[in-house]
Amino acid sequence: MKKQVLAVALSAALAGSVLGMNVSAEEGQTYTVGICQLVQHVALDAATQGFKDAMTDALGDAVTFDEQNAQNDPAICATIANGFVSSGVDLILANATPALQAAAAATNEIPILGTSVTEYGVALELDDFDGTVGGNISGTSDLAPLEEQAAMLQELFPDAQNVGLLYCSAEPNSQYQVDVVKAALEEMGYTCELYSFSDSNDLSAVTTTAADASDVIYIPTDNTAANNTELINNICLPAQVPIIAGEEGICSGCGVATLSISYYDIGYATGQMAVRILADGEDISTMPIEYAPEFTKKYNADLCAQLGVEIPADYVAIGAEEEAEASTEGATEAVTE
User: Fold this and answer.
1) Does 52 lie in the same domain as 180?
2) Which residue range forms the structural domain that includes residue 158?
3) Residue 210 pLDDT greater than 90, yes or no
4) Nearest Cα residue to 253 out of 227, 215, 279
5) Residue 19's CB: how many other CB atoms inside 10 A?
6) Domain co-membership, 201 together with 132
7) Number of separate domains in the chain
8) Which has the least CB within 10 A, 5, 39, 171, 271?
9) CB-based contacts of 244, cutoff 8 Å, min separation 6
10) For residue 233, is it within any domain?
């Protein structure tokens, strides 16, 4: 129930942005925001862009960004976060769990907003996490309904027997997700096996082992996997092993289907939280983590065709929404002209 209420709040915030509910900085007030993004891939890039757009929509030239990428290295996250503290930024955006952990270790004074973080209680090792971190940390979560992702696998592959769950053991939120999905799938009667890789160096070998032993593979919202979808696809596609992915970016690279959120939207909502903190003076310690208001069943049309996977009518092809929007905009421009 708690997450449903927060999702409604996030939905309302996003709706408010569409209606042009902007905030203006006080005369002459400027802000510097440090952005630490763990690694470049579709999902995290979209979240960062949404964050920047929300802040710029509200504050215009009054906000500047110091945007840095950690190249999927937690140690670089720490260096970046400490640099932000030394330079005295007004707020830090931590995009992905290792970035959040590094920022939390670097300061307990500068406001920190996380995004693309699945479970804050797990990421920050909080006992009895109730939805509000407290202190100088809040943000948005990319958690999709894990039991519903398991149900998606069952819907598409009811005759499969062995499911491999492929994830990076260095990412605590990936471990959390596969544990939940594994339990759900085992209740459905599947035989499940965990296949963990420590980093990109052993990803190929572990993926090959998983593909050899599995009828279907599940990959959670895992940053290392997201940064190596081509490698995973080059192993699993020839082996004719389909992948259910935790988010759209991974699905577009190597998966057949996903139940995914919009990373741009959660990034935008995080930017709106930043405006409320910096321009409105809202107390970050009382701000609960916000969750995506909706989830969409999506599929990778090309990989489904190559693997012979039949997709129900209520799934949306990845890219179809963007193409429809572009077509509508083009038609509107033509009418206007």
Assistant:
1) no
2) 146-260+300-323
3) yes
4) 227
5) 7
6) no
7) 2
8) 5
9) 149, 152, 153, 156, 216, 217, 218, 219, 255, 256, 257, 258
10) yes
Q: Are residues 161 and 130 in the same domain?
A: no
What pLDDT digit, counting tens, does each position of 229-277 carry?
999 999 999 999 999 999 999 999 999 999 989 999 999 999 999 999 9
Is residue 76 domain-resident?
Answer: yes
The pLDDT assigned to 10 comes to 56
Give the chain's radius of gyration (CA, Å).
20
d(CA 336, CA 314): 33
| pTM of this structure | 0.81
Angle, CA of 111, 107 and 99, to the nearest 5°: 80
Report yes or no on 42 lying in a domain. Answer: yes
Q: Tens digit of pLDDT for each residue in 124-174?
A: 999 989 999 999 999 999 998 999 999 999 999 999 999 999 999 999 999
Does 136 lie in the same domain as 65? Answer: yes
Look at residue 294 in the predicted model and tell me its pLDDT: 87
Q: In what order do the strands lie in the sheet with 63-69?
A: 63-69, 31-37, 91-95, 112-117, 137-141, 290-291
Hey, what amino acid is at 110?
A: I
For residue 121, what is the domain's CATH number?
3.40.50.2300
111 and 152, same domain (yes or no): no
Instruction: Judge whether 328 lies within some domain.
Output: no
Burial of 286 by CB count in 10 Å (0-12 exposed, 13-18 middle, 19+ buried)?
A: exposed
